[in-house]
Amino acid sequence: MNDLLNNIIKNKKALIGITIMLLVILTALLAPLIAPHDPGDQDVTRRLRPPYFMRGSASYFLGTDALGRDILSRVIFGSRISLLVSLASVMGAGLIGSILGLLSGYYGGKVDSIIMRIVDIQMALPYLILAIVVMAVLKPGLQNVVIVLIVTGWVRYARVARAQTLVVKENEFVTAAVALGAKRSWIVFSEIMPNILIPLVIIASLEIGQMILGEATLSFLGLGVQPPVPTWGGMVADGRDYLSFAWWVPTLPGLAILITVLGINFFGDWVRDSFDPRLRNL
């Protein structure tokens, strides 16, 4: 434990990343307590007020949007959607992709061919186009955003899980389990799966930021979580028409996306380099 803490302290990127992640998580958990206003409270008499550092009101520290809603409160509550969607998507995509990749690598033959052809087809399609098509079919909404991100994100886990399974299943402890007559399900999930988890966890740590960007992109296009629920991508979309004279409306939620994703990527890079530098180029 002490070695881990020393490693984090010595690595500035890891320290910055973990600090940002903790701040975002605490902000999301404590949003009702720390938000100065109701994020949905509208009043056009206070529309487009500048931030406090531009001689604005201290009551609306980051200013207001076109409907007079407090930007700071909306950014705070928007962190909840970003974290909820990203974590749920990573867990769902990781679970599905890992199991399919594990089965593909262990059984081989037709099972491997079918799963890998699906992976190849999906990887040949542009991510954003696939996400837009799936979302157009399912219709916008929080649950459907998670489904879309899972559908578009499972393939990377499947590829890595398959590659690792092909290596691990040749080890002596697996051969011994087969010789002793162990069931295939036991071998797959008790012998092989625990030995391929580290690369999958590393990928998950790197994918969280991508899922936040994916949710923000869909919300920006109007295909994500729908108003009046505040989302960072939706806030950027709402403020794009005011960029020339009220730059803070789209820029501040955009900075929230940038800082959060940057912090998560710093953390993911540290996890990768610490546990398995061989995955640097995956």
Please describe what this structure looks like:
- The protein has about 280 residues and is mostly helical.
- It has one domain (about 1-280): MetI-like (MetI-like fold), CATH 1.10.3720.
- About 70% of the residues lie in helices and about 0% in strands.
- It has helices at about 1-10, 10-30, 30-35, 70-105, 110-125, 125-140, 140-170, 170-180, 185-190, 195-220, 230-240, 250-275.
- Helix 6 packs across helix 7 (about 140-170) and helix 10 (about 195-220) runs parallel beside helix 11.
- The longest helix is centred in the first third of the chain and has 37 residues, at about 70-105.
- The relative contact order is 0.15.
- The mean pLDDT is about 90.
What order do the helices and strands come in, and which of them pair?
Blueprint: H1 2-10, H2 12-29, H3 31-34, H4 71-107, H5 109-124, H6 127-138, H7 142-168, H8 172-179, H9 184-192, H10 197-220, H11 232-239, H12 248-275
Helix pairs in contact: 2-4, 2-12, 4-5, 4-7, 4-10, 5-7, 6-7, 7-10, 8-9, 10-11, 10-12, 11-12
Which CATH architecture is right? Orthogonal Bundle
For this structure, the CATH topology is MetI-like fold
Helix and strand content put the structural class at mainly alpha
Strand content: under 5%
Number of separate strands: 0
Biggest sheet overview: none
Molecular shape? elongated
> What is the ordering of alpha helices and beta strands?
HHHHHHHHHHHH
CATH top level label = Mainly Alpha
Through-space gap between termini: 28 Å
Helical run tally: 12
| CATH fourth-tier homologous superfamily | MetI-like
Average pLDDT level: 88
Q: How many individual domains?
A: 1
**What gyration radius follows from the Cα positions, in whole Å?**
22 Å
Model regions low in confidence, pLDDT < 50 over at least 5 residues: none
Bin the helical content.
Answer: over 70%
